[in-house]
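Recap slide: DUF934 domain-containing protein, sequence and predicted structure.
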Amino acid sequence: MADFVSDTDTLIRYREDEPVDHAAVTVDSFLDQSNASAVRVEPGDDARELIPHLDRLALVEVNFPAFGDGRGYSSARLLREAGYKGELRAVGDVLVDQVAYMRRCGFDAFEPDAALNEEDLETALSRWPEVYQPAADSRTPIWAKRHA
């Protein structure tokens, strides 16, 4: 995992490459264009439509219009499990309490509506040193460590 990098007041990245600054288009617009390299997935969109195009995407933004809307977690995990390696950015109503779970689903960048405190963020990410189930991140579940 790359170290915490804050590129602006609200953009937080856990990647070592340069941030993507392309304007993200909607899924429908992306599917109609041949030159877009950034897309924004809304809660009602089917992220599986992007799977045939993952190799040309540099950025996928997943919008969280309200912190209680968890559909973006599923979109992230679907894309990571399908092999997406580019930047996967959670945008919108992202709270510090959600970031650790979002990282497990494959998000590696965050652009919340309100800036997150760096110390609170690192505390949230380090709170649970072990995990119990496999996910889109690279953490090994504790049961696999015991039976290795």
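The two ends are 23 Å apart (CA to CA).
The longest strand covers residues 59-64.
(End of recap.)
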